[in-house]
Amino acid sequence: MQKRIYGIETEYGIIFTPDGRKTLPVEKAIRFLFEKLITTEHFLNVFLENGARFYQDTGCHPEYATPECSSPKQVAIYDQAGERILEDLQGYAEEKIREERIPGKLSIFKNNTDFVGNSYGCHENYLVDRDVDFYYLAEQLIPFLVTRQIYTGAGKVFQTQDGVHYCVSQRAQHIYQKISGTTTNDRSIINTRDEPHADREKYRRLHVIVGDSNMSEYTNFLKVATCSVVLQMIEDNFINKDFTLRNPVKAIKDITYDVTCKRKLRLDNGREYSPIEIQREYCEMAQKYVEQYPVDDEHRDAVQKWQYVIDCLDDDPRKLDREIDWVIKRKMIESYIDRTGCSWNDPKIFMMDLQYHDIQRKRSLYYLLERAGAVERIYTEDDVEAAKSTPPADTRARMRGEFIKLARENSIQYDLDWSNIRLGNLLNVRVICNNPFESDIEKVAELVRTIQKTNLRKTSLSKLVIQS
Fold this sequence. Notes:
The protein is of the alpha+beta class. The protein has helices at residues 26-35, 72-99, 134-147, 149-152, 217-235, 248-256, 275-292, 297-315, 325-340, 347-355, 365-371, 381-387, 397-409, 442-454; strands at 6-11, 13-18, 45-47, 53-57, 61-65, 104-109, 122-129, 156-160, 163-167, 177-180, 188-191, 203-208, 265-266, 272-273, 414-416, 420-423, 429-432, 465-467.
């Protein structure tokens, strides 16, 4: 398959629940989260030693963007590493809150909606060639993205005028357009933001903003890996069927209210398919694709998992109560209802829904299930722990992460973005890397050695630019 860069941006919900009359503004809680990250960069916008970016996003949400990753499994690992990093920062922030003598509990959730109806996103990023027609690519991809929520949804207990519903997806209810340039109002399935953070003549970024944040490793991996396969099939003109939906925005909402995943959707050509049937068609094409094209083992494994999931959904979704977030959560809640005799509109049910997404592993209901061996894992805890501090070895993130370590060890002033490293007292020495597949850290190490020798006093360095 074509080499590709993957990234996930996850916005987290944050709540401080006071135990008394004295409270703490969320803005201040977020500042405590960042305070541990002693750096020369902007206070609420920092790059980390694993190459990732951590910053405050619109609406007072801490956001973690993975480093550039070279595979779906790698990006899923680094996304979970972001949870662990934020959990560590949460512990520090709670200590600072205690010093302020404000009794209460700080909670951080990896979900997509709050109790008053606001939504915050989980955005997937895929590097694509500039010469591919973007709108053709988007139109071909939309039927897949609309229907994939049947195995990528995080699940939600949703209160409506008609009563309480259990929905497949959290994000689907907040989508209003197919394609648009905004991520906060009139949200779309695919965003047109064209920031490749790479050579613009060669690449552009496919920015998918319709997905849920996932706790399940299996779900998170499948979300990215299946999209990667479909994307590659579109680029290779392998898809020979038209699944254009007559009203994709309506369809995405219809699907999320149907836990059978079998409600029929009307296509542009007048035919009707269920989400399972559409996904099965894509999956069968993917099976043929991996037989005919050189595909790595990871994507072959993803297609096998995809087939398994579709078969289970078609037979009985409850068979996926170890793999797929919305099914895992529904089983957990239904078991509690059966055990206690409470109803779906009991406030405890809404709290369980939220606590499933708590990143604090001692409190999280998802991690309670994980400790009990009740959910599937696809990588090890050692993989996640390593990803907290070590950048991917085969992308540009390696250069960035290793530079940050060297700069901090040598007290070198610096500033970063995805494609540039600026350093020195005047930030006038620069490393440019427009190739996200570049991983040669020797260039960075040589620059640091030069700075150490000269101590940035020689004026000849003022115009130094290393181009990679």
